[in-house]
Design goal:
Elements lengths: L3 E10 L7 E11 L4 E5 L6 H8 L7 E6 L2 E2 L5 H11 E4 L11 H11 L4 H14 L15 H12 L6 E5 L7 H17 L3 E5 L3 H4 L4 E6 L2 E4 L5
The protein binds adenosine-5'-diphosphate (2 copies).
The site of one adenosine-5'-diphosphate (ADP) has 5 residues, from helix 2.
Family: Belongs to the ABC transporter superfamily.
InterPro entries: AAA+_ATPase, ABC_transporter-like_ATP-bd, ABC_transporter-like_CS, ABC_transpr_LolD-like, MacB-like_ATP-bd, P-loop_NTPase
Keywords: ATP-binding, Nucleotide-binding, Transport
């Protein structure tokens, strides 16, 4: 069964006004467990809009948004928030780590909020940090870490509560090409190791080609980009 199913998603802004814009015009996608899908789109095509709808942060005008087989597109806010916290991890171009806390604490805190015991949360944080090569940095605050290290900590935080679905918007877009390459490898290791379903937006076609499938957002619909790996 698909972890994420978007079917016929329509979304626009400023409905009924002269500056009305239709962004999504029937976008559909299925992402299964263990499947990593690249989302490639020119700026302004609606990539963030699509990721926000898939992440239950925004509602579509029409269409189905299923997470783990449950239609949540128009579910009450509480059900959407609960599903988002339990099932979805987010990664952005910028890390958004809490600056006053250490790397480990940034990964422990969301677990405590989720009802995990401190001991289990600490062990999981350490396991995550070690798996992306920043175990020795666990006691450092973000400001004391390099950009690539900060972003790897952000990956760990996104997976802290063991989501089934990972949504990422240009996860290495803020890094130089060499660091981006290395950090992307760490992300893929995490995602593959945990059998996650992932939808990862990127402008980098070399990174996109390392995923299982490449989709292009074209005129409001998702089309197979036909990239062979
Ligand atoms: P991308 O992430 O691909 O750059 P977005 O999803 O951010 O694209 O935006 C798609 C289009 O929708 C753009 O033309 C943008 O200006 C417009 N848009 C996005 N959010 C809003 C909003 N809240 N109100 C009005 N227009 C918006
Ligand atoms: P928390 O559990 O910290 O209160 P939420 O349940 O509100 O967080 O959101 C879960 C995740 O969704 C957050 O980690 C954040 O990355 C992302 N998120 C929440 N609101 C927004 C938003 N308005 N724009 C982008 N991302 C958001």
């Amino acid at each position: 069964e698909a972890v994420l199913r978007l079917d016929g998603i329509e979304k626009g802004y400023n409905h009924g006004k002269p500056n009305e814009i239709r962004v999504l015009r029937g976008a559909s996608v299925l992402v299964h467990p263990g499947e990593v899908v690249a989302l490639v789109a020119p700026s302004g095509a609606g990539k963030s809009t699509l990721l926000h709808i898939a992440g239950l942060l925004d509602t579509p005008d029409a269409g189905v948004v299923e997470i783990g087989g449950v239609d949540l597109g128009r579910a009450p806010d509480r059900a959407r928030t609960t599903a988002r916290r339990a099932q979805i991890g987010f990664i952005y171009q910028f890390h958004h780590l809490l600056p006053e806390f250490t790397a480990a604490e940034n990964i422990i805190l969301p677990q405590l909020a989720h009802g995990i015991s401190r001991g289990a949360a600490e062990a999981h944080a350490q396991e995550l940090l070690e798996s992306v090569g920043v175990g020795p940095r666990s006691g450092h605050r973000p400001a004391a870490m390099s950009g690539g290290e900060q972003q790897r900590v952000a990956f760990c935080r996104a997976l802290a509560n063991r989501p089934a679905l990972l949504l990422a918007d240009e996860p290495t877009g803020n890094l130089d090409p060499e660091t981006s390459e290395r950090v992307f490898g760490a992300l893929m290791g995490l995602v593959r190791g945990r059998g996650l379903a992932a939808l990862i937006a990127t402008h980098n076609m070399e990174l996109a080609a390392r995923m299982d499938r490449v989709l292009r957002l074209d005129n409001g619909v998702l089309v197979d980009a036909g990239v062979t790996t």
